[in-house]
Amino acid sequence: MNDYMTRVLNDVKRRNSGETEFIQSVEEVFKSLEVVINAHPEYEKVGLLERMTEPERVVSFRVPWIDDSGKVQVNRGFRVQFNNAIGPYKGGLRFQENVYLGIMKFLAFEQTFKNSLTGLPIGGAKGGSDFDPRGKSDFEIMRFCQSFMTELYRHIGADIDVPAGDIGVGSREIGFLYGQYKRITGKYESGVITGKGMSYGGSFVRPEATGYGAVYYMERVLEHFGEKIKGKTFAVSGYGNVAWGVALKVAQLGGKVVTLSDHTGYIYDKDGVITDEKIDYMLKMRADTSGTIKDYAEKFSVPFFPGEKPWGVKVDVVMPCATQNEVNMEDAKKIVEAGVKYYAEVSNMSTSNDALDYLKANCDAVCPSKAVNAGGVAVSALEMTQDSIRYNWSADKVDSKLKDIMTNIYEDSVEAAEEYGLGYDLVAGANIAGFEKVADAMMAYGIV
Ligand code: NDP
Q1: Nearest partner of 325 among 306, 303, 345, judged by Cα
Q2: How far, in Å, are 67, 270, 394, 410 from residue 205 at the CA level?
Q3: How many CB atoms lie within 10 A of CB 60?
Q4: pLDDT tens, 322-334?
Q5: Does the N-terminal or the C-terminal CB of the chain have fewer CB atoms within 10 Å?
Q6: Is 204 left (phi over 0), alpha (psi -120 to 50) or beta?
Q7: How far is the CA of 134 from the centre of ligand 1 (A)?
Q8: To test the ligand 1 pocket, which listed residue (130, 286, 323, 382) has its Cβ within 8 A of the most ligand atoms?
Q9: By C-alpha distance, which of 357, 393, 405, 358 is closest to 214?
């Protein structure tokens, strides 16, 4: 890393001390950018990297709500509006016990480059709360969402900032959040949030989009190696929204997902999560906040491995779909030992930085989350377009646009890495391609 980047990185570390995920994500992006920064000395003069690594706005707020026993509960809410150089802030809301500022900032920073990669006019943001929906009743979740929106509504808008779902925030939560927004503002501003139900301004294919997009991206990668999804086996973690979309699309294309997991362990289904019954059961488990992945093992009589992750199972493709840093160095070694050739992060920053380097050195293709999972936000942006024209495109039309967008992301990443002499490096290519568009816009605005 050159002197300018080292100085900025040291400042980031000092200013965001303790926010380890955010620092990790800046380090990972910077690794790819040295060639670009060297080619553009003008960036240093205008403090581009300093500005790009500091969020434009961070909101932190109290979320009081009353549980079913009448007890007052308090959680902490966040919205990090990182960068709106190329469009309104856009990024999901995460409700999970471990949420704190460092996770919000890393997700919003990553989102800025991911949204740029989609080619659509959307900036980067993220939000959420340390509220854990697991084990809560529907009414508790509703009361929490209403209280959360009672503060958030003043920071968002169709042309300002457009939240969506993420871990712990699915269609039920989006319904409660939008219902409260509508009630407070008295406006039917459906473009203010995405991931909505089809009866009130949603888009076809949005629930499936992240998983489908990830598989479309993997199709392009396999094509590069003269291979196909058909007949391939996949190890997937999580059993949430994203894992479901991956399992469904892989099954449609003739491959099979053989593992699913959660924080309690993983299941191995040698026949694959390919039948309608199994895939629909994933949706049921996701909606029922009291279950665990062991329920799948019991229902379909497959082995359950408590306390273990699905890495090390012999498969062709590994696609982590649960959470950040779910693949560390030890896991990466198991993946390589199992002979896996293709590795694609689907959860945001699935891999620790050292493990990512190891996998890059030992697998045929390593694909970064900001490219692989961009299909979700891309279809969210298509939902915004449909909201603005008050018209729903067909599922086929949205799906075909999603496929085109994922192909463009793949091709732009390949070209960006080649342009800078880095070869077939999908990680560097995605970082560079995502960075360049945001950098161009920021250069045009002057120092703001
Ligand atoms: P969900 O809440 O639907 O599912 C998350 C899944 O991951 C659950 O099965 C959960 O199990 C598991 N999980 C969460 N934390 C851990 C952990 N520490 N260890 C093991 N398993 C864990 O979330 P999504 O499917 O929506 O999101 C998954 C990932 O994809 C996240 O990184 C998210 O940021 C990313 N993503 C999601 C998009 C979307 O459209 N939804 C878009 C782009 C990225 P448990 O119940 O045990 O917590």
Answers
A1: 345
A2: 34, 28, 9, 20
A3: 13
A4: 999 999 999 999 9
A5: C
A6: beta
A7: 13
A8: 323
A9: 405
